[in-house]
Design a protein that fits this description.
Blueprint (H helix, E strand, L loop, with lengths): L1 H29 L11 E4 L7 H11 L6 E5 L1 E2 L2 E2 H11 L7 E5 L5 H14 L4 E5 L5 H11 L4 E4 L16 H30 L3
């Protein structure tokens, strides 16, 4: 009887562990908003770094014919827009720079970037935009751009990021930091930043 009890407890513990792993994995994967690429008016590659997966993903989408243009957003880097460095990097990797443009924005957050980029998207008459960023940042960026740039359809096409492992994020420090940071910022966007923005707009500020 005692042996049977221990075996039952071990089996139950294993089931509970698998269930919790599944829940944690689902929460980690929720941060990755990955839509099927569709033909679009342009591709918007968000700032963050001027080389690496997201920059390469943007160039690949242009090369694959999903849009005639990719805009590389970002603040200044060594006195020039970050996008200039991105395009230079892609040229070094053998990509054609045709259809690649730099868009300098003075922003230190995703919300500020969305508000800064919006006038340019409107000026270009963009109705459908492929949104490219790092995988862990893709859900939040999709939420932000859809809230703060109404009237434009954003399709999230993220690039894989070696620093984030959504299926096992709790097992390494880099993934854990990104997981907690992104969930905190998503909550802040939906609960505080966007309502505050709407109230200011209604008051004419």
């Amino acid at each position: 009887m005692r042996r049977a009890l221990w075996v039952s407890l071990l089996i139950l513990s294993g089931i509970l562990l698998l269930e919790w792993r599944g829940v944690l994995s689902s929460l980690g994967n929720f941060l990755v908003a990955s839509d099927t690429p569709q033909p679009a008016d342009l591709i918007l590659v968000l700032g963050g770094n001027f080389y690496g997966p997201r920059v390469l993903r943007g160039a690949e989408l242009v090369a694959q014919g999903y849009a005639p243009l990719a805009l590389f957003s970002g603040p200044d880097y060594q006195g020039r827009p970050q996008g200039d460095a991105s395009i230079w990097f892609l040229a070094q990797q053998g990509y054609s720079t045709r259809g690649l443009e730099s868009l300098g924005v003075n922003a230190v957050s995703t919300i500020e970037e969305a508000l800064a980029v919006r006038p340019e998207l409107i000026r270009r008459g963009a109705k459908r935009v492929l949104l490219v960023t790092a995988s862990f940042h893709s859900r939040r960026s999709a939420i932000v751009f859809r809230l703060f740039c109404p009237g434009i359809q954003f399709i999230s096409v993220p690039a894989a990021d070696p620093q984030y492992h959504p299926d096992s994020w709790w097992m390494d420090e880099s993934s854990k930091k990104l997981f907690y940071s992104e969930w905190e910022k998503i909550a802040g966007t939906v609960v505080m930043a966007y309502p505050e923005y709407v109230i200011k707009r209604l008051r004419g500020r």
